[in-house]
Design brief:
Shape: globular
CATH class: Alpha Beta
Strand content: 25-35%
Structural class: alpha+beta
Largest sheet: 8 strands, antiparallel
Order of helices and strands: HEEEEEHHEEEEEHE
CATH architecture: 3-Layer(aba) Sandwich
Number of strands: 11
Number of helices: 4
Radius of gyration: 16 Å
Number of domains: 1
CATH superfamily: Mog1/PsbP, alpha/beta/alpha sandwich
Distance between the termini: 32 Å
Helix content: 25-40%
Length: 207
């Protein structure tokens, strides 16, 4: 997949920069949610993306523009979803591949590119990631990994644990992450799984 656009990595890095900035700004409005008692569904204005999240979480939609970023926060965790225009060319290349094995392999390459971009953005912080798993989310092929790193200043230097997922379908692509302090991971894991598994990629509504 050497013909995939280099701009994908640039979009990921730009998105991570925005996520970091808005994570800081959103920290003061984060909802102190412990056990989840109710769930809500968020849908983008153009209908292209939807997902479930715990009701009461702070939701910051940096929407409409490119990249499109959604940040969900509680007191001690955050989930981000990136949908960038540059991923459209990835979708086009992905759709032309001849078989399922090739498509999953291409998806793994995009997933690794996101990890590389994140590692570049994090600088000295060490991102440790497990093996890649293949799955299906919302009827679309997806890959995921669990990762760990030591948090930056805004995370108080805490060890952090999370999941990353990359989903690409015929109409669009999603790069998503769910992150929590490692000490809260056992509590957060089922929440993270439900949110990530609820992501749906739809054809955008015609304007």
């Amino acid at each position: 997949m050497s013909d995939w656009p280099a701009s994908v990595n640039a979009a990921i890095i730009a998105s991570l920069a925005l996520i970091t900035a808005f994570a800081v700004l959103s920290a003061s409005v984060a909802s102190p949610v412990g056990p989840v008692r109710a769930w809500a569904r968020w849908t983008a204005d153009d209908g292209a993306i939807s997902l479930e999240h715990p009701a009461g979480w702070a939701v910051r939609d940096i929407g409409a523009g490119q990249p499109h970023i959604l940040i969900l926060r509680s007191e001690w965790v955050r989930i981000h979803v990136i949908s960038a225009a540059e991923l459209a060319s990835v979708v086009s290349a992905y759709a032309s591949l001849p078989d399922e094995a090739s498509r999953y392999r291409a998806l793994e390459l995009v997933h690794q590119a996101a990890a590389d971009a994140w590692g570049s953005w994090m600088g000295d912080e060490q991102l440790e990631e497990g093996s890649v798993g293949r799955t299906v989310i919302g009827g679309k092929r997806a890959v995921w990994t669990q990762f760990r790193y030591v948090g930056s200043g805004i995370e108080g230097g805490e060890p952090m644990t999370g999941y990353r997922a990359t989903i690409i379908g015929e109409s669009g692509g999603i790069i998503a992450g769910a992150i929590a302090p490692s000490r809260n991971w056992d509590e957060f894991k089922p929440i993270a799984l439900r949110v990530l598994q609820s992501i749906r990629v739809h054809p955008a509504a015609q304007q």
